[in-house]
Amino acid sequence: MDVPALGVRRRWSVLAVCALALFLVGLDTTIITTGLTQIGRGLAVDAAALSWVADAYTVVFASLLITAGALADRIGRRRVFRIGLLVFGASSLLCAVAGSLPMLIAARAFQGVGASMLSPVALAIVVNVMRDPRERAQAIGVWGAMFGLSMAAGPLTGGVLLTVFDWRALFWINVPVILVVLALVALVVPESRGQKIRRIDLPGQLLLIAILGIAVGLLIEGPRHGWQEVWVLPAIAGLVVLLWVFARVEQRRSEPLIDPGLFRVPSFTGAILGAVAVFVAFSMTLLLTTRIVQGSWEWTAIDAGVLILPMALGATVLAPVSGFLVGRYGPRPPLLGAGALLALGGACLLIAVETGQALVLMVAYLLVGSGIGLANAPITNTAVSGLPPDRAGVAGGTASSARQVGTAIGIALAGTLLADASPGQYAGASLPGWIIVAACGLLLITVGVLAARSTHPQRGG
Question: Where are the membrane-spanning stretches (predicted)?
Fold first, then answer.
């Protein structure tokens, strides 16, 4: 169901409302990093278990992205968008009043359900109202820049709230924003549905949730309890079996959640690996450095938030530049540049943490953020290039899920590295993390080489 053509002011008002929701989703991905230490103290739990506070949100978010988009096309995008806002607001309240770690983790998972209904659905709403290709490109550029802004606002807002209030304020802050967005949605956002309605792949959805949950659980709990524990091998075996079952189930469905056939296209597989790598590097950098700055360097939460601003600056400025480069020269130049920046960022992070120099850390943040900003547009382009138009939506949704999977893996790995370390040992314990960040950059360079062989500059970002 197409909506009638809207006026310019109304179209950009729709973009503003949807971008505000995206900002909120990104904010809750990063705001938690500055508060994990305080949450641990407030709930009297060890640091290793706190990775679940971040990953319960990202795992559920990643798992449900594609299904939420299909559901919105079926029953109405504005309707699902409103439901997502209500779920996100209610779960934020539950997070704020949580009296134990299990309750907080459950509330964060519930929050991930709401987030999955906001990000892809809001983008579909924007694309549906922006009919002119040039205006749509401008809108998507604004959309991409919101990621950098939310990345900046998360740690900084978290630092301010922790300085003035306590960790519960990290979740209370969502409630008034949700109320404002709900009111604006009622005023300016029209209802729309997809022209081609995809079936909901319930078996695939349940299998994907189980696979991601077990994989992240192994990364968090394995080092915490020891890989020699009796449950580890059965869990790994179960994960392998579930992956095999998932592939078989999806091959036999006419409209699978994730089409296994897409992974036979080298450029698509490379793009998915690249998306995971970029966000592993991002989340590891953010979580490890925040813990080091607050734990080892004994900086305040607000100082740690300010320190991260160069990362957000790099991501915000280079996101639209990347889209221009992809449109003019194809995905190869920005992918190679992004890979080089991430690799250099990993090297700078090692130097910064070993020497304790804040200026070097800010340079590292700028390099990593710039790499992230350059990478997003060509990754999406590479994922959909060479595929027929009717598969582009599934490919784009899979790439979006891969980004959240990368975030979850990075958070789990970061928590693993610092699990048994005291604040004075954080610098040494984080060394493998910086190697992983640099390796993610090298993987992205490889994706750039694959993209050069498989895609063409004429295809849009």
Answer: 12-37, 49-71, 83-107, 113-130, 142-165, 171-190, 202-220, 226-247, 268-287, 307-327, 334-353, 359-379, 400-419, 431-452
Rounded Cα distance, 104 and 52, in Å:
9
Angle at 153 between CA 442 and CA 108, to 5 degrees: 85
Are the C-beta atoms of residues 50 and 415 closer than 8 Å to each other? Answer: yes
Q: For residues 363 and 458, is the Cβ–Cβ distance under 8 A?
A: no
**Which is it for the CA torsion 352, 353, 356, 362, positive or negative?**
positive
What stretches of 165-254 show up as alpha helix (H) in DSSP?
Answer: 169-172, 174-188, 202-225, 232-252
Question: Which residues have a Cβ under 8 Å from the Cβ of 167 and sit 6 or more positions away?
Answer: 35, 38, 39, 42
Provide the 3-class DSSP secondary structure of residue 198: coil
pLDDT digits (tens, 9 = 90+) for 17-40: 888 888 888 888 778 877 888 888
Measured in degrees and rounded to the nearest 5, phi and psi for residue 46 equal -80, 160
Alpha-helix runs per DSSP H in 3-132: 8-30, 36-43, 51-75, 77-97, 101-116, 119-129
Cβ neighbour number for residue 265 with a 10 Å cutoff: 18
pLDDT tens profile 144-196: 677 667 776 788 888 888 888 889 999 999 999 899 999 999 998 888 776 66
Sign, CA dihedral 256-258-264-267, equals: positive
